[in-house]
Amino acid sequence: MSATPPEPGDAKSRQAEWSRAPERSNMLALRVICAIAILCGRPLTRLILHPISLYFLLFSPTPRRHIKRYLFRAVGPKAGWADGYRLLHAFASTVLDRLYFLRGRMDLFDIRVFGNAPVEVEVNAGRGAFMLGAHVGSFEALGACKHRAGAPADLRPAMVMYPDNAQQINAVLNAISLPELRPHMIALGRPHSMLDLRDWLDSGGLAGLLADRTLAGPEEAGQQRGSSIEVPFLGRPALFNDGPFRLAALLRRKVFFMAGLYVGGARYDVLFEPLADFSERASDPAERERRIRAALEAYVARLEALCRAYPYNWFNFHDFWLEDPH
Is the pLDDT of residue 23 over 70? Predict the structure, then answer.
């Protein structure tokens, strides 16, 4: 598939366009679906996901083009319409399940947790840590971990994110969720973002970031600074931002990879994996830069392996590789 390569000067601004993209949601439709989900239950409501997924597959040509490119690289050249439908249905499933997670219906799900011991060591010691994920599966599945038997009572994940491009769906979900289950959010792009993040970590909280999208520039995000680094991803160079790793280095925290994978039906697999340790100060600036670059490359390698193993869990429906002509 041919594409016009981006001009070097505008690559970062184009990669950050997702944060300014208008939300594609209808408030009335969201409320109707939520009402059906609450009144009719999960098994019946899941039947609605089939026509919704088919509709977006047929009538959303731009996301469909980006989905096709991704699936060709994650699944192979034989990926077709059925694969695109399966990806959209998995995405719709995780959006629906957010409602049940936020209403405390953990009994509806089979959640299996892997690699959580090192994270619990940090939590039990009262130290905060960064949890770097991607637009893979469900972040709410991570929050559900604290309700399973044997989990530490003070597991407190916060989502560090841009809230402005998903205001409608977040407003609906917040309105129907239980207050004690509503995830704490630290908004990026605010003057006080850095202080809020530091205070949360100092209190022993976990800071979750989805690091597979380039952050906005300093003029838009205040303290959120970083460089867009070109790294091979699924066989083609892609831009990733090292800002989350610079934050971890600045605040001297450990970094874990996280993913709440939707396996199908009612099952989620929550994975944790140590990624980098910035708790010790680097000996000099060059060493710090080397560690940041190594951590970024380790993150991309882990994400690529995950996309190949669970290809229908990656929910980036924009021009990730900057292949569209501009």
Answer: no
Tokens of 36: 């059906």
pTM comes to: 0.85
Query: Other C-beta atoms within 10 Å of 2: how many?
Result: 5
Cα diameter, the chain:
60
Per DSSP, the three-state class of 6 is: coil
Q: Could you count the other beta carbons within 10 Å of the beta carbon of residue 220?
A: 15
3-state secondary structure of 135: coil
| Those residues with Cβ within 8 angstroms of residue 297's Cβ, 6 or more apart along the chain or in another chain | 231
For residues 12 and 267, what is the distance between their CA atoms, to the nearest angstrom?
A: 37
273: exposed, middle or buried (Cβ count in 10 Å: 0-12, 13-18, 19+): middle
Q: Which helix (H) or strand (E) holds 29?
A: helix 27-40
- Distance separating alpha carbons of residues 279 and 276, to the nearest angstrom: 9
Structure token digits, residue 243: 């800002």
pLDDT of residue 215: 53
C-alpha pair distances (Å), 44 with each of 50, 133, 316: 11, 31, 27
